[in-house]
Amino acid sequence: MSNFLSTGISGLLAFQRAIDTISHNIANVGTEGYSRQRTEFMTRTPNPYANGMVGNGVDVSTIRRVYDDLIASQVRASSSTFSSMDTFAAYMERLNNLFADTDTGLTTTLQKFVNAMQDVANSPSSIPARQVLLSEARGLAERLRSYDAQLASYDRQIESQLESEAREISTLADGIAQLNVQISASYAVYQQPPNDLLDQRDRLIDELSTHIDVSTVPQSDGTVNVFIGTGQSLVVGGKASDMVTLTDPYDAGRHRMGLKLEGGNAADITSSLTGGSLGGALEFRDQVLDPARNALGRISVALQSVVNEQHAAGIDLNGLPGGAFFDVGEVEVLNHASNTGNATFEVTRTDTGAITESDYYLEKTATGWSLRRDSDNAMVPLSGTGTAADPLTADGLSIVVSNTANTGDRFLIRPTRAAANGFEVMISDPAKIAAAAPIRTGAASTNTGTGTISPGKVVQADHPQLRSDVTIEFIDANTYSINGSGAYPYTSGEPIVYNGWQVEISGAPAAGDTFTVSDNTGGAGDNRNALALVQSLSSKVLDNGTASINDTTTRLVGNIGVTTRQIQASRDAQEVIRQESVDARNAVSGVNLDEEAANLLRFQQAYQAAAQLINVANSLFDSLLAATSRR
Amino acid sequence: MRISTSAIHASAVALLNDRLAELVKTQNQLSTGKRILTPADDPTAAVQALELDRALHESKQYERNSNAATTRLSFEEQALADATSLLDRIRVLTIQANSGAMDDTARNSIATEIRTRLGELVDIANRRDANGEYLFAGYATLTQPFSVSGTSVTYAGDQGVRMLQTSETQTVADGHPGSYVFMDIPQGNGSFYTAASNTNTGTGVIDTGTVLNGTWVADNYTIQFTSPTTYDILDGTNTVISSGTYSGTSETITFNGVQVNFTGKPATGDTFTVSPSGSEDIFTTISNLLTTLARPDNSEAQSALFATEIGATLSQLDRALEHLSSVRSEVGGRLSVLESAAEARADRELDMQTTLSGLRDLDFAEAISRLNVQLTGLQAAQQSYAQITQLSLFNYLR
């Protein structure tokens, strides 16, 4: 009889535990990362009797956490990828919006500048038209600088994001390490799983995976080791490494990511980091932001070189040669922090058509110099020795080295990064716009032949004799002399090049006919150089003569659009994948209140039944007492 | 499959968010009227739209350029018309002066009028356009091109021609330099010009002559009368290349592609020259006329010289009028080119606008029906969420 009393009591206790667990589940229905728990029952060892084994009731064997390691790692992998794409896409969308407005966009601003130049060509002597050109030029410069400033501000945001990512990853790693300690202690003492601690640790690892791609290796003592990147250990048992930001050895304004073991030095692991918001931010910086700034810089470089070159070939209202129209930021050369030499560099852009949007790594080798292009990691052949007389040249750059570099010294060359930021209009006096050509041509009124001379153009603006008066006189119908000397054969329409200019005489000049090329004094109404400027702005000057400035600008905007669209599509697809794995985890581990309600009813009834056993035992006991009591 | 309670809520909220985001995008499209809000919405179309936008701006600029050219050419056209009627008047006066019934007083008054007209012509040649730029100065549009000193007019401009870009491929000159319009008028008949020596004593008169079959051999020829009925023709090196006899009243002389008519009675030793045409400016022609008019006309020889010179002047005035009219027709040609270019441009702009609109603008009918579908979808999602979340077994546990 005491047997079934204790059996009944074992049922009462077990169902009480079960209802405890159910109420724990219900209470945690809203807890993030909570895995539902199940009470596991086990029959007690039966009492052996001659006629058989009589059951002894129930025991609670354990409270089990319903959890699937495989699904959990799927959730982490997919949320790490998603979070990387989401961060990338968020930056990308802002960049996309920046370039979205067609009314204030680069193409429109550039066209406005060209239009203002056309207006100057329409009335070259008009100061108001020149004034408008200057303000459109300033508008263009302002546009380029403000785009660059926006991109620079994204850069700073990413730098500060890297710092906060490092702090958060370190904090999470610390939390995981501490939980590892508690969990292994709990296993050691109670021999039972500390379900809620395990949930907490899994939640921290989940959160870690949104910052960086992680892999976990469970240990036999219940602890979990966490690895990031290409297998760098972030947490081992109760010890966590510190994620820190390191200063970029080339650029003190930039961060790289380092991992610092307890008491050790921080190792640079930037290149092996992928996934998560940290991976997304690094990827955006390297693959979109830096190239976009370089592209913008290259557009500025092209504008400056094309406009300045043509402007110098003209003369202004005062009759002086055109000065520098635009200024642009210099080539940046950055020293590696570990360099031992004291070399300095003078890097100039010599060929706009060959300039790329890439950065370059220059290294002193035992035999000379080596140059690596960052965009495709290709070694670029260098010619020259690096002296002022014989500079190193490659990809449109000319590099002059001063002082000495030691073997192994490294330098980062950014040909166009700072160009847009330094883009400025150098002219403030409208009269100084060189709309006119420096020379004019004429035919003598005494000519008897039918020869005509073209207006002429400048082929070498810095020729010292460019604006000297020159007379071309025909000795006979097929021969001419220049300034009274020489006898050159005449072919109608053939270019005559002299003193840095080029003219064509066509038709049939007669003997004694003269043509003059002279200084364009007082040519206030001449618009030839303004027209040439318009022309040069649409000429294909970039990518070795295959792309115009405008082509490059639309390509930049187009690329940003395409990349944004791609990353948005990938992110949306990845979100579905992540959602599916989260759903799968919820299907296994999530609390369903209806299910808990049903279980509650079940164990309530079982508890009531077990309580009834006590009642039965009580009445049995009473009847036995009554039967044996003396009256 | 088990569904956890929190997943029901989370997924419902996520779906509602998605629906709402779609709705907001449609609403944005409707309120801006644009299909492409950022380049990412349709990168290909966005880039095409950028290019079309730029081309449209460019086209508008070409229109401005064309208008500038049209304005200046119209100014020039007016100036040329005025110059033409002025020259016509001078021509009439010259013919009057040439009629035999003129005495010195009458010639003087004609000369006075012509002198006034010359001043007017210089004023026309110095005209400015609406921007204050001289029309006929070449590039030197701020320098007064023509100035009178004594009896001659000098040109201070140059031979520059300003071109304006009126389409991607077309440039149109917005005027002519003064040197071309007023200065470089071919002398004589364009190949050669004739003149009588002012020391002639006979009454021979030479006309302006014509070129025979285009065989004109350029050189400075002199026709020298060795007697009233014989003449020698000398070339530039004073070599006699042919000789002939003169009838005494009129004769047509031909040599080396030259055909000139002689009338009157030349005296022994009279010379006439046939020289290759250079160019002569209108002002010189007129001041030569004034010199001729001032010449005494008291002898037959003087009359003959007068007749030769007036003949040369009339021919030169005709050349000038012809020249002005050819410049005017060039201007007219340019104006009509500009006009047809404007039509082509308008067509092209319309074409680009249409394409641009197709690329970038919203199809409102489609967007509004999409908006309705999305609204219905969102409402359905909201209602079903509200109903589903009311379901719970706990509702039945009493």
If you had to describe this structure to a student in words, what would you say it looks like?
The complex is a heterodimer of chains A (631) and B (398). By secondary structure, chain A is of the alpha+beta class. Among the domains of chain A are: 2-66 and 590-628, no CATH class; 72-286 and 546-583, no CATH class; 439-519, no CATH class. Chain A has nine helices and 32 strands. A five-stranded antiparallel β-sheet of chain A has the order 13-20-15-16-17, with no helix packed on it. In chain A, strands 22-30-25-26-27 form a five-stranded antiparallel β-sheet, with no helix packed on it. In chain A, strands 5-6-7-8 form a four-stranded antiparallel β-sheet. In chain A, a hairpin with a 2-residue loop joins strand 28 (495-498) and strand 29. The longest helix of chain A is centred in the N-terminal third of the chain and has 64 residues, at 127-190. The mean pLDDT of chain A is 91. In chain B, the strands form five sheets. A five-stranded antiparallel β-sheet of chain B has the order 6-14-9-10-11. Among the domains of chain B are: 81-187 and 278-356, f41 fragment of flagellin, N-terminal domain (Up-down Bundle), CATH 1.20.1330; 190-277, no CATH class. Helices cover 53% and strands 16% of the residues of chain B. The relative contact order of chain B is 0.15. Chain B has seven helices and 15 strands. Chain B is rod-shaped. In chain B, a hairpin with a 2-residue loop joins strand 9 (221-227) and strand 10. Chain B has 398 residues and is of the alpha+beta class.
